[in-house]
Each structure stands twice: as C-alpha cells, then as structure tokens.
Amino acid sequence: MAFVRKDLLGIRDLSSEEIQTILDTAESLREINLREIKKVPTLRGKTVVHLFYEPSTRTRTSFDVAAKRLSADTYSIATSTSSMVKGETFLDTIKNLEAMGPDVFVIRHSASGTPHRIAARTSASVINAGDGMHEHPSQALLDMLTIRQKRGRLEGLNVLIVGDIAHSRVARSNIWGLTKMGAHVTLCAPPTLLPAEAASLPVRVSHQLDTVLGAADVIMVLRLQKERQGQGLLPSLREYAVFYGLDRKKLEKARDDVLIMHPGPMNRGVEISPDVADGPHSVILDQVANGVAVRMALLYLLVHREVPPVRG
Ligand code: CP
Fold this sequence. Notes:
This protein has 312 residues and is α/β, with parallel strands linked by helices. It contains eleven helices and nine strands. Helix content is 35%, strand content 14%. The strands form two sheets. Strands 7-6-5-8-9 form a five-stranded parallel sheet. The chain has a four-stranded parallel sheet with strand order 2-1-3-4. The chain starts with 15 loop residues before the first helix and ends in an 8-residue tail after the last helix. The site of phosphoric acid mono(formamide)ester has 11 residues, from helix 2. InterPro entries: Asp/Orn_carbamoyltranf_P-bd (IPR006132), Asp/Orn_carbamoylTrfase (IPR006130), Asp/Orn_carbamoylTrfase_sf (IPR036901), Asp_carbamoyltransf (IPR002082), Asp_carbamoyltransf_Asp/Orn-bd (IPR006131). L-aspartate binds at residues 86, 169, 223.
C-alpha cells in the first residue's frame, strides 16, 4: 500500500492499513541497524530539522540517528540558543528555517496542536514528536512494533496502560493505535489521573491494579507527568507507588509471559520498581531500539511517499 501523506501528526488520523504499512516498513528497515556499516543512501541530499521545545533524550536522538542512517543531513534548534529568546515568534522561526530548504521538520512542543499549525504553513513534511498532552505518534508506533515483534500480532491482545493517563500523549496515541489494530485496551489509574474523555474512548477503565493485572498480555507503565499536573492530584508519591507502582509482588498476579513496557523517562521506585524495569519481562530497551527503525520508516515514507522496495 502506498503512503501518500505529507505529515505525521497523530495516530488518530491514520487508518489501520497505514499503521500496518509503517510497521512493515520499519521491520524491513530494521536490519540496517544490525549491519556493520549502518548507513544507506536513501535520503542523501535531504535535510531533517529537529525543533524540540521540550526536553527529550530518546525521541530527539533516535530521529537524528534514523535520519543519519538514511544519509539525510540534520540540524537542531535548541530553545535556549535560538532567536526566540529575543522575541521571534515560532512561526517566523519556521519561515526562516524553511527558506533554507528543509524536507522534514520534527517538532516537539508543550502546546497541543503546534505541529498541526506548522504543517498547514510549510511545504516541508512535519512529524509530531510530542505535542502537549495530545499525541506522540512515533512512540505509539514503536510500542506497537515492539508488541508485534514479541507476540507476532496486535489483534486480540489485552494491553493494560497504568499511570498518569490524563497527562500522557503516549497513552492517547497508543489508545488510538492499539484499538485500530484490534487490541483490547484497559486503563488503570486513580480517578484524578484519568482523562475527562475516558468514558467516550474505546477502552475499559479500572482504578484497582490488582484486579486487572491477571488478564494483561502487555502492561504499559507511565510516568507521573509532574510538569503537566496541577496541585492536589495525588495525596503522595509513596501512596501512589503502593497502589499503582508496578513491583515484583504485584507482578506475581500477572501472566508468566507478560511484557512490561515503559516509554521513558522512568521514575524508578515510583511507577515501576528497578527489579521489574530491569527484569525478564521488560522490553523497555527493545522499545528504544525499535524507535530508530520506526523513525527511519517515517522519514522514508514521508519523503518518498511510497513503500521501500523489498530487500533480497
Ligand atoms: N519516550 C519519550 O518521548 O522519551 P523522551 O522524552 O526522552 O524523548
């Protein structure tokens, strides 16, 4: 199937066929990351610009690694050293960067909808690398790729998402993606950390982790997003960890083959204990490795607007 989009702004917009195409493309490009020389000329002469107006370790680095593995030129704008500190607007910044002829902008911003506004004003492709509490589509795609690799499918699996769902763009993108691909999603959080729209989403909701652990094929643990929370949402971190932190004792109620995922960054000892994060069920570093493959696929598909030829 051809992939004919200019931009990747969210999972909610995508069809299940488009998600399948991205995952299949990532799977076929993944072997480049296993070679001795991890570089192909596919995007030679193309330019990818990283605009991260919020902190990032994994997303920013893996988009950069992905672009470089495909031989694109890359550059980054850091908030603190750009002329936005002198009062230039974000849109003026984009217009000036566009005059230098980029092919792709990768944008992370604290304001939901920023990548959408930029996409409507530039001929370059725009990839949403996380916008406020809205979506983080490349994270959901790498999560789906990881589950598919480990379980051979997404359809019919029970995925439990635990933690600060209200403030999580990762959760929103995963809810859309996983349910479009036929997985069953359960959200588990204290009532104050569930999104207002939870009742209208195609998910089950629970407030008691012990009662929903046993049915899960995958447990996706989320960080408390303190940078987006108001005051008084939680009594204490200690209490949160007792009821919702995933530790070895709680894991005894889970299936023997359950997968433990976390998008990072982790707060060890709060939402997940170190022995679970580093334990045999954890696929957290597989998620990171798959992030490079998924971002290679996105850059390839958005620039070429077709799937890559099958490798012999
Ligand atoms: N998962 C994720 O978005 O991590 P970073 O904030 O480090 O990019």
